[in-house]
Model the fold of this input.
Amino acid sequence: MPRRRITQTDVAAMAGVSQATVSFVLNGNTPAGVRIGEETRQRVLDAIRITGYTANPLAQRLAGGLTQILGVFTYEATFPRAGRDFYGPFLVGIEHAAERLGVDLLLFTSAPATGGRRQLTRDGWQRLGVADGCLLLGQHEDRGELQHLLDTNYPFVFIGKRGSDGGRLPYVGADYVEATMRQVDRLTALGHRHIGYVGVRGTDQPTLDRVEGYRTALKAQGLTPSFVETDDVAAAAGEILARSLTAVVVAPENHPEELADELERRGARVPGDVSVLLLGQPHHPRRDGRRWSGFSVPREEMGVRALYLLSRLVADDGKRDRETRRASAVPDAELHQLLNCPDVEGATAAPPPAATDRTPDDRTDPT
Done:
């Protein structure tokens, strides 16, 4: 039969002291006006050793006002499936940071997924209360839920740049604007003048930032943007060739491998005839895939930085509760962190073909 769990009451009875005294010895501190003699302390320690008592860590943490548990919530399915490891580096970074900080992680997975997307509504709000704070990540977040967390002062950090009313939403993101500008500059330095952007222009923050970087860099060079707005690979390849584009930038979710395959099927070499730069790592890299030129997203570092920021917000929130809501000790500049995206040399960028005195057709975007 399993043995009954030893409690502080058992330890107190063996040592001949109160349960409060056992708690004071375990916690290593005593309230003002309370003194525990060395002989009494030793009796408690001997009783703990003899009984084999082990403290309940969650109870100890709750007694201190914090659980030392930080949550992780993803709006999409998290664990890798069939080579899908988009969230993997984020989780590795988060785990490493948790080890250094000495905190535990709780992955919130019970929220029902509808259409492949989770929500915090209903029981989700109560479940978040188990943790001192939470990391949020995903491509299709609910802005209303984020605003609710801000309004209720629940400590959280979003992994990925996100905006909010008043700029109060804390995040650690990738600097897609600057990274995309650098890719366009790389292409113009190689001699390209007809550079397109391939992909549907959605309203998600990464796409908005990539488009901004693309537009800004072309404007600085006095060049005209050309958007190939379709998620159909065959149609995209056809438009690239019809517009005489010698280079394109492509987000990883827009099927870059298939696009390059289709271009080559139509007789255009990559990068000999059309250079293709990838704005981030492939989401689902192909085993025999190309060595893409472009930039990489520092996902592991983002996970580390996000957890460190969350731990500071949690500690600051606890201090403000004890010190009548004093001003936050976390500077505003640290609430919004954008990390550099390193360039990747790759093998899909090259100078344009010799005959490049062609002009894109009138389907280019004049703005």
In short: The chain has three domains: 8-55, 69-174+299-341, 176-296. Residues 299-322 form the longest helix (24 residues). Confidence is low (pLDDT under 50) at residues 321-327, 355-367.
